[in-house]
Amino acid sequence: MSFTNKDVAELLEEIGILLRLDGANDFKAIAFDRAARTMESLDTPIATLVENNEVTSIKGIGKSIADDIYALFETGEIPALVSLRNKVPKDLVRWLDISGMGPKKVYKIHKELGITTLDELKARCEDGSVAALAGMGEKSAGKILKSIAWMEQFAERCRLDEAQIIADRMVALLKDKPGVKEIAVAGSFRRSMETIGDIDILIGADAGDAAPLFDAFTSHESVLEVLGRGDTKSSVRSREGRQVDLRIVKPEQFPAALMYFTGSKEHNVALRQRARERQMALNEYGLFKLGSDGNTDFDQPVDYTSEADIYRKLGMSWVPPELREDRGEVAWFAEHETADLVEATDIKGVLHAHSTWSDGKYSIEDMARACIERGYEYLGLTDHSRTAAYAGGLDARRVQQQWKEIDALNEQFDKEGVRFRVFKGIESDILADGSLDYETDILKGFDFIIASVHFSLDMPVDKMLDRLSRAVENPYTTILGHPTGRLLLKRDGNKVDLNPVIERAAAAGTAIEINANPWRLDLDWRYGNKAQEAGLLTAVCPDAHSTSGIDDMEFGVRIARKARFDAARVLNTLSIEQLADHFAHKRTR
Ligand code: DGT
Ligand code: CA
Ligand code: CA
Ligand code: ZN
Description:
Layout: H1 5-21, H2 26-40, H3 46-51, H4 63-75, H5 79-87, H6 90-95, H7 103-113, H8 118-126, H9 137-153, E1 158-159, H10 160-174, E2 182-185, H11 187-190, E3 195-196, E4 199-204, H12 210-218, E5 223-229, E6 233-238, E7 243-249, H13 254-262, H14 265-277, E8 280-283, E9 286-290, E10 296-301, H15 307-313, H16 329-335, E11 349-353, H17 364-373, E12 378-384, H18 396-416, E13 421-429, H19 440-445, E14 448-452, H20 461-473, E15 479-480, H21 499-508, E16 511-512, E17 514-515, H22 528-534, E18 540-541, H23 553-562, H24 576-586
Parallel strand pairs: 4-7, 11-12, 12-13, 13-14, 14-15, 15-16, 17-18
Antiparallel strand pairs: 1-3, 2-4, 5-6, 6-7, 8-9, 9-10
Helix pairs in contact: 1-2, 1-5, 1-7, 8-9, 20-21
């Protein structure tokens, strides 16, 4: 194994930083800093010195650090670094990105306030605890807060809904400009990933029309910084901190470029392989014949008119972008024309919504009318259950009052001649032992029940598995809510392997929701193959706490497609009557 002087310098420097974050003696950390500096300015390749067993001859590198370097070349790792990386909380390392926060200050705040996450640090800055520490003060705390806000803005990825706003804005700016023959957003956004790194926009236009398009793009008021500008590609950072790439290709190259820049990388690799097997080469410029030397022959392009046409020339059908993740889609579309993925227009009603009865912002009637306006046939209302006291959870008495209100509202819709129904549901907490939050008498009175974990999210995984399994096997559970409890880019969910939960839910006829709130998108689409194999049902649930929350449905549908659900496995594609039947049969099957 070999490493450059720069590699070694970086590793030694990391040891120095981690030692300080671990509260080690300063002189120890300084020794690693100094060794790192020495390594950077060394004239001889360190590999040569290792080979000749001469590392200790370097001025400023003692026996112990020399041994670390020998270990690195022998095993690929420095044991001291491996154990430090395991020991020092990852979150503390992120604190170092805060301007003005060196490792010693990080360690001091971490130790004295007993906190490790960025969120905790933010809270302690806001409540004055950081300012009260010796040597800190209001000004330093304010600076830390400002820097955290900046970091959050420039984080590496964003949620799908955040990317949507930026992508829509740029497409609106460019789509009607002279010369634009085709425009599309490619990349992870087109594949409906739950989080997005950068946003990739692609335009088909003649080369002569490109410059004014790049001008418009880079000078838009939402652009904070131009990261690069060329003849075919330009990159900017938007005011939200997101990188946006614009590529302009010749109109005839557009389909191949769109396919390439949609990715995923893994899907592209699989397609290139298929092309080779057919004596062709596929790249971002198009499809070409292979020359007699086995290389791409750019003088022999294979004509195509669309993405679908390129797939066809590769002996397969067009793959919906959501599925381009190299998870079996290439083999599937070599045999089939479609995967019958659910579509937004298949969704007939809204399940999982909150009203002012618990922590929602609008009355039941407001929520119902918002559903009607959006063309839905029903609302499955699910306020919080009694254990969720912090969210205004309903005790049995309040539940019964709510049922009366729902009955009256349904009668009123009848009178008005509006074909719409509010179903009586509840988002029942799953208690620590996996049971639901009411006595059977009350459970019986609901039309349907979403069971969700809201507390003790971090219990040991085997206990959590039992908890979720009991919940999905309870005959009164219609739908398991947000199974991991994750908040994307903010909080990890539980680490349970959901495969057995999916099997048990499928066997019991219990659905697992795809929570459409872009913070959640949970069930994760990566369980899609398993869900399909087990015959799992789902429901695309906005988990709306306001009328506008209902509009999150679109994100849920995108994830449901990515997870390969067809309409037949999505409960809220059923009509009012079919769904009422399903609810009734579920608990007696
Ligand atoms: P992101 O931005 O991290 O959310 O993910 P993507 O998938 O948008 O990745 P990005 O922006 O780096 O590249 C866009 C697409 O371009 C990617 O999905 C596939 C294609 N691509 C980029 N680099 C490569 C590469 O080295 N090889 C192949 N086969 N495809 C690539
Ligand atoms: Ca991207
Ligand atoms: Ca990109
Ligand atoms: Zn909820």
